């Protein structure tokens, strides 16, 4: 055998000897619980496809009992994906479990994830149940879930604040009932690495049957103290073989552990985490991160590890000099390994359909030919107004495209007049999906307020504006402005995004997008009602 073959076979046997850490992505469930991050059906499906291409092992696609929308997206994702396991979340409530089971019917690799709070504070103040009762409900729920699939995960919610011996007891009980993964969440981001790691070591030491039966222990960390990734890695060092995380670390409150940080820590510090590997194709991290941030409207902070705009930028002269001489002096990761584009390709007026399509694929979108054609038209229209079209512009067009299919109302034209000492007045014309146009005028406290009042009249949908943000998505005088709004409609918060080289038009589109989202959800609920002959499920408390 030659030296090369020797090296190759020893590298292979080292890789074989490594333990795989299962990457469980919950961007579409816990991530979507970030305030204002609601995704529509198409967006969820597109993100799920990219997560599968990224190499994620388990995709938690939603919480089917909470809404018709969640049920439908879990079902569609479960039916489409062939490699990744698709999980649906469920409380320990029989109706929830049946709903999760139904949503996952026809899925190649289904998992039902049931959870029940176990900590003293949750037992006494939230559930008002004794621990014995919680064990009983949890065991019954795992057994019920097993009727739908033999892949059942159980989470003792607020596990990191649960008495250790109770954790051991419930873990043993749910495993005997059929759970194959037990997740110990740090629900409120309270744990610190050594302590969180110790929980895993303790449970494993007390329950040798976990290793014997191949039961996977899982970490799920929230970032309230900025420790989610550190805690997840401590869990891995102490026996966790699954980590639950989200793209860009989005999630409830301060978010969840960031997938890209965990994966790149395990990879970059493979000297330290030498026993572990993941199945993630790290070169796809950056495009997925961009897609999630575009679709959720949750922008990645500039200095965010791995995927932030500054993550590989060197400002200090000494650093620049060092990197030019030898990259590793100041860079611990190669930006190409996380999929950062080597050079910023700029398209423009003369770029053809082929170049545009290549860029769409590079950015990770899976549009069919008809959708690419539509997006290409929008690209051409933009390149008439704007000399250079960047990736950010194309992502915005594609995202608008995913929303456009669900547009009930379309903005035909608008006119505003405003100025110092005059009352702002707006006239808007919108068209519904049947082609009927409506024109309304209104005054307001400034041009945006006037447009929004006119739109409420024209669409007959009443909403309160709760948040309004604007930014330029690229640099330059001709940059497109992006407006993101959050509106309240009864007890629902809905987000809308609009984009244009004219910021007032972007604001109008964002508002209409939010109104369209409200109408689409209402229509879907009504359709589900008619076909089921009963109330759409809803009102389940989010964990
Ligand atoms: O944070 C949490 O406890 C959860 C559970 C449902 C796993 O999200
Ligand atoms: Zn969580």
Task: Break the fold down into its secondary structure elements and pairings.
Layout: H1 3-17, E1 19-20, E2 22-25, H2 41-54, E3 58-62, H3 68-80, E4 85-91, H4 94-103, E5 110-117, H5 120-127, H6 131-146, E6 152-157, H7 164-177, E7 181-186, H8 193-206, H9 209-213, E8 216-221, H10 228-237, E9 242-245, H11 259-268, E10 276-277, H12 285-296, H13 317-325, H14 353-362, H15 369-385, H16 391-404, E11 409-417, E12 424-432, E13 437-444, H17 447-459, E14 464-472, E15 481-489, E16 492-500, H18 503-532
Parallel strand pairs: 1-10, 2-3, 2-9, 3-4, 4-5, 5-6, 6-7, 7-8, 8-9
Antiparallel strand pairs: 11-12, 12-13, 14-15, 15-16
The protein binds 3-methyl-2-oxobutanoic acid and zinc ion.
Brief overview:
The chain is an alpha/beta fold. The chain contains 18 helices and 16 strands. Helix content is 43%, strand content 19%.
Give a verbal description of the structure.
The strands form four sheets. The chain has an eight-stranded parallel β-barrel with strand order 2-3-4-5-6-7-8-9, surrounded by seven helices. The protein has a three-stranded antiparallel beta sheet with strand order 11-12-13. It contains 18 helices and 16 strands. Helix 4 links the parallel strand 4 (85-91) and strand 5 (110-117). Helix content is 43%, strand content 19%. It is globular. The chain has 543 residues and is of the alpha/beta class. The chain folds into three domains: 20-296, Aldolase class I (TIM Barrel, Alpha-Beta Barrel), CATH 3.20.20.70; 353-402, no CATH class; 407-530, Double Stranded RNA Binding Domain (2-Layer Sandwich). The model is unreliable at 532-540 (pLDDT under 50). Zinc ion (ZN) binds at residues 30, 185, 187, 220, 222, 252.
């Amino acid at each position: 055998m030659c030296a090369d073959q020797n090296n190759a076979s020893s590298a292979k046997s080292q890789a074989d000897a490594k333990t795989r850490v299962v990457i469980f992505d919950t961007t579409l469930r816990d991530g979507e619980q970030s305030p204002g991050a609601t995704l529509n059906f198409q967006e969820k499906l597109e993100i799920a496809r990219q997560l599968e291409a990224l190499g994620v092992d388990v995709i938690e696609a939603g919480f089917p009992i909470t809404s018709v929308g969640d049920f439908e997206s879990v079902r569609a994702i479960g039916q489409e994906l062939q490699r990744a396991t698709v999980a649906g979340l469920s409380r320990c409530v029989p109706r929830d479990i049946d709903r999760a089971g139904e949503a996952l019917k026809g899925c190649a690799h289904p998992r039902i994830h049931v959870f029940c709070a176990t900590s003293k504070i949750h037992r006494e103040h939230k559930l008002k149940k004794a621990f014995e009762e919680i064990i009983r409900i949890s065991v019954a729920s795992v057994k019920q879930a097993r009727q739908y699939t033999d892949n059942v995960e159980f989470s003792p919610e607020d596990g990191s604040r649960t008495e250790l011996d109770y954790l051991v007891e419930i873990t043993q009980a749910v495993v005997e009932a059929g759970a194959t993964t037990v997740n110990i969440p740090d629900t409120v981001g309270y744990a610190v690495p050594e302590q969180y790691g110790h929980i895993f070591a303790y449970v494993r030491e007390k329950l040798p049957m976990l290793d014997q039966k191949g039961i996977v222990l899982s970490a799920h960390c929230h970032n309230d103290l900025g420790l989610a990734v550190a805690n997840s890695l401590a869990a891995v060092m102490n026996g966790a073989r699954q980590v639950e995380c989200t793209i860009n670390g989005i999630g409830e409150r301060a978010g969840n552990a960031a997938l890209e940080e965990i994966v790149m820590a395990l990879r970059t510090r493979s000297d330290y985490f030498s026993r572990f590997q993941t199945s993630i194709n790290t070169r796809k991290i950056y495009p997925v991160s961009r897609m999630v941030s575009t679709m959720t409207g949750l922008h990645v902070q500039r200095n965010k590890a791995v995927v932030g705009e500054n993550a590989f930028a060197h400002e200090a002269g000494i650093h620049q000099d060092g990197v030019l001489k030898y990259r590793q002096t100041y860079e611990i990761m190669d930006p190409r390994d996380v999929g950062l584009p080597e050079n910023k390709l700029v398209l423009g007026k003369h770029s053809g359909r082929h170049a545009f399509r290549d860029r769409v694929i590079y950015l990770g979108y899976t549009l069919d030919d008809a959708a690419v054609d539509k997006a290409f038209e929008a690209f051409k229209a933009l390149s008439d107004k704007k000399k250079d079209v960047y990736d950010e512009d194309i992502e915005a067009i594609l995202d608008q495209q995913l929303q456009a299919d669900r547009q009930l109302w379309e903005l035909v034209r608008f006119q505003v007049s405003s100025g110092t000492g005059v009352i702002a007045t707006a006239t808007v014309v919108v068209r519904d999906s049947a082609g009927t146009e409506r024109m309304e005028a209104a005054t307001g406290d400034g041009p945006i307020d006037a447009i929004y009042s006119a739109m409420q009249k024209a669409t007959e949908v009443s909403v309160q504006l709760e948040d309004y943000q604007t930014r330029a998505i690229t640099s330059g005088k001709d940059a497109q402005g992006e407006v993101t709004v959050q509106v309240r409609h009864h007890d629902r918060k809905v987000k809308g995004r609009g984009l244009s080289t004219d910021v007032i038009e972007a604001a109008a589109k964002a508002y209409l997008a939010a109104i369209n989202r409200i109408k689409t959800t209402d229509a879907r609920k009504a359709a589900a009602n008619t076909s089921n002959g009963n109330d759409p499920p809803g009102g389940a408390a989010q964990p």
